[in-house]
Specification:
Helices cover 61% and strands 0% of the residues. It has 366 residues and is mostly helical. α1 packs parallel to α14 and α6 runs antiparallel to α8. The longest helix is centred in the N-terminal third of the chain and has 28 residues. It is globular.
């Protein structure tokens, strides 16, 4: 099961195509963002595309995870899944990356406190899932999460150790996703007649078009202002020379824009079953495996320096193809032990009381 959650189980109600479609498109945009990173230093077109995607794709990815997060008191099953869906895959893939860098000539430093490349998401998702039941006890969880995110940016000691900066910075999007479910918007949207749907979609297209045009026309200014750093949520403001008291206002503005773009993104997602709906359950496979496809391109230097105009669309096409291939059932079967380890050996067969004594079935008690 994907760590992003699922809309149903095989024995209960059917999956909702809207969310499978949203998951797969969101993870594909993540791959695209990583694939074109090496191009943004030399080409304004690539940098425009990069800023456009990063304005919403990670917030969407986080919000979809929050939508399916459980906010009730965690039971044994939920606690097991935190370990098998997040902790064990993080340890496995962090170890793989450490060994890979060592084989390629680097030092062998096994440091689980510093996540390699995309593995930050597993640690962040672990914290978000644990924190959500406590956050929702508060009267205004979304407002409080926004305050936490903005405030964290002023504290320079909050950095990439155990992904703390990103965990706190992106927390509002996880809570926002949870709120979307509380507002029961999915059923309302799915029941909306086609004429009204396309009115909303026209507005969403207009918003995205205006954003892309705004970025394209001001790309040099945005590059000079280091707007990219605000979209990553992985550093304090002072780290990239924003020590002024109003720096948090920029994060707030970026965040509010991202909330609107999340909604616009979901409005544009097909409500019916599509050719990629069946791929929507493999998002964690794509997320964890696509880096191995892109790593040779990233480290070989083949994308360094100015590139021909066709390279950007080629990298986007490669990203889509990578996302499709890594979502296929054969790939999932092959890598399931790494990405969805069952680890039954790790868990005790019966529950334990708070004092640590074993709870026996009633018929075994004397």
């Amino acid at each position: 099961m994907s760590a992003l959650g699922t809309t149903s189980t095989p024995t209960t109600k059917r999956r909702v195509p809207l969310w499978d479609n949203a998951r797969w498109i969101a993870i594909t945009l993540v791959v695209v963002g990583h694939a074109i990173l090496k191009l943004i230093g030399e080409a304004d077109t690539a940098y425009t595309m990069y800023l456009f995607i990063y304005a919403f794709h990670v917030p969407v990815f986080v919000a979809v995870s929050g939508y399916f997060a459980k906010s009730g008191p965690p039971g044994a099953k939920q606690m097991h899944r935190l370990l098998t869906d997040l902790v064990l895959p993080y340890v496995i893939f962090e170890t793989i990356w450490t060994v890979l860098r060592w084989i390629l000539g680097g030092k062998f430093v096994l440091d689980y406190s510093t996540a390699s490349w995309t593995l930050w998401f597993l640690l962040a998702l672990l914290v978000w899932r644990i924190a959500l039941p406590y956050l929702v006890l508060l009267r205004y969880p979304l407002t409080i999460s926004i305050m936490i995110s903005i405030g964290a940016g002023y504290i320079s000691s909050i950095d990439g150790t155990f992904t703390l900066a990103r965990t706190l910075g992106l927390l509002p999007f996880f809570v926002f996703g949870w709120k979307l479910r509380q507002w029961l918007l999915t059923d309302t949207w799915l029941d909306l007649r086609a004429g009204l749907v396309w009115r909303w979609r026209a507005g969403a297209i207009g918003l995205f078009a205006a954003l892309y045009l705004l970025i394209a026309l001001n790309i040099e200014t945005l590059r000079a202002l280091q707007v990219r750093q605000f979209l990553l949520y992985d550093e304090s403001y002072a780290t990239f020379d924003y020590s002024e008291f109003w720096a948090g206002g920029i994060r707030l503005a970026v965040m509010v824009l991202a909330f609107a773009l999340i909604v616009a993104f979901l409005i544009l997602i097909p409500r019916r079953t599509t050719w990629f709906s069946s791929l929507g359950g493999a998002t964690m496979y794509v997320y964890l495996m696509h880096t191995f496809v892109l790593y040779p391109l990233r480290e070989s230097g083949v994308l360094d320096g100015p590139q021909p105009a066709w390279v950007l669309p080629a990298m986007i096409a490669l990203s889509v193809m990578t996302s499709v291939v890594l979502s296929l059932p054969a790939v999932r079967r092959l890598f399931r032990p790494l990405i969805e380890p069952q680890a039954r050996w790790l868990f005790r067969p019966t529950a334990a009381t708070p004092t640590g004594t074993i709870v026996l079935p009633h018929h075994d008690r004397k």
